[in-house]
Amino acid sequence: MSKVEETVFLMENPVQKYNWGTKDYIPQLTGLDNSVSEPFAELWMGAHGSSSSFLQTSSGKISLMDYISANPEQVLGKAIADKFQELPFLFKILSAAQPLSIQVHPSRAQAKAGFNFEETQRLPLDVSIRNYKDSNHKPEMLLALTPFTALTGIRPFYEIGEIICFLRLDQKIEEFGSLTAELSTENLRDFFNWLLHLKRRQKEKVRNNIVRAATLRRGCEHPAAQAIEWICRLDSFFPDDIGIFAPIMMNTLQLRPGEAFFMEAGIMHAYLEGSGLEIMANSDNVLRCALTPKHIDIPELLKIAHFKPAEPHRIKPYLQGMEEVYPSPALEFQLSRFRLSSSFRIDKLLSAEILLNVDGETEVIPEFGKPVILKKGQSAFISQNAQSYRIAGSAILFRAGINPEE
């Protein structure tokens, strides 16, 4: 455990090199070497059990997990330590060159039940077929740093019907005919289940008809145009995956830099392209159904996923002095941005926080502890026993911490 006068620490953060990642965005932002041109998909800032950050201390490096577990009340504050027993959020830089899987996250109750069941089955935590790695839920927020596109939630039923008719699927594939009648949550769930379980010959027939119709009608002035565009693009990445047709049913969301959206439990989603900041509860529970070589569990996803139409849950920031706050519906986290030109004081720390500098340079000056210089691409961990701190300089900073409504 480091001495009490050290309360602010520069972080060394692990990079996840998933094959869908870009090769340039995270290295250019952080200054990390990528001379071998690997995909840098995610940079994790936090104390996740599978991949923890490290802190630079006067006595050497220490993992953030070990630092917290040595004295959780001092680092997190007593109330948060008692409630969560860990840093309750994971903060990421994410950069996608290719689409990610169609996935959904469970509620806390669903996660607990799923985790307990898989424990009774004696499934090791690291086995690939395991769905529930812990008993926690995983609400998420993504804030775009570049133009960002995602699929999220179910379109209005009338839009789904219009797209099916526009692509003439009701004429070419008789199984689609029932969907041009009265759409409902249940028959859409049944349709999605049917689609994902098509046999190879059926799948090829559906795929060929949809892609042909989409290609012929691309560029037409119609609400389906965006869905058609993404069906064709997904087909170029996943030509044998029936999940390429998800844009028929799911909302396509486009974010400009600085815009954000939130994903509750049960909301199907897939990131398509772009770079952003992601913050979530400290969990690894993901159920997937398509667009991935990873483990797929369609029955479990269908049990968890919502098929009621829902608009994407955009998060609108508000100004609080110099701080632009993105209010979070989740108790575990909140995210905010500073466009710092002089100095700003954080009066009271509710718990530990992480600061990420994406441009410029600033000094982090705690009430108790030694100051730290934070340059572009660097992040700092601030222990609760700093009590308060001041940031001074010229920089754009993101602040990840506990939701003050907690």
Describe the structure.
The protein has 406 residues and is α+β, with helices and mostly antiparallel strands. Among the domains are: 165 residues, Sandwich (Jelly Rolls), CATH 2.60.120.10; 92 residues, Phosphomannose Isomerase, domain 2. The protein is 25% helix and 32% strand. The strands form 4 sheets. Strands 1, 6, 7, 17, 18, 19, 20, 21, 22, 23 and 24 form an 11-stranded antiparallel sheet that branches. Strands 2, 3, 8, 10, 11, 12, 13, 14 and 16 form a 9-stranded antiparallel sheet that branches. Strand 18 and strand 19 form a beta hairpin. The longest helix has 18 residues.
CATH architecture of one domain: Sandwich
Sequence stretches where pLDDT stays below 50 over 5 or more residues: none
Looking at the structure, the CATH topology of one domain is Jelly Rolls
- Gyration radius over CA: 23 Å
Overall geometric form? globular
Give the biggest sheet: 11 strands, antiparallel
Question: What keywords describe this structure?
Answer:
25% helix; 11-stranded antiparallel sheet; Jelly Rolls; 9-stranded antiparallel sheet; Phosphomannose Isomerase, domain 2; 11 helices; 24 strands; globular; alpha+beta; 406 residues
How would you summarize what this structure contains?
25% of the residues lie in helices and 32% in strands. With 406 residues, the chain is an alpha+beta fold.
Topology summary:
Elements (H helix, E strand, L loop, with lengths): L7 E5 L2 E2 L8 H6 L11 E4 L1 E2 L2 E2 L1 E4 L2 E4 H7 L1 H5 L1 H7 L4 E8 L5 E3 L3 H13 L19 E5 L3 E7 L2 H10 L2 H4 L12 H12 L3 H18 L7 H13 L12 E6 L4 E4 L5 E13 L5 E4 L7 H7 L8 E3 L2 E3 L2 E4 L7 E7 L2 E4 L6 E14 L5 E4 L3 E4 L6 E13 L5
Antiparallel strand pairs: 1-6, 1-23, 2-3, 3-8, 4-5, 6-7, 8-14, 9-15, 10-13, 10-14, 11-12, 11-14, 13-16, 17-18, 18-19, 19-24, 20-24, 21-22, 21-23, 21-24
Helix pairs in contact: 9-10
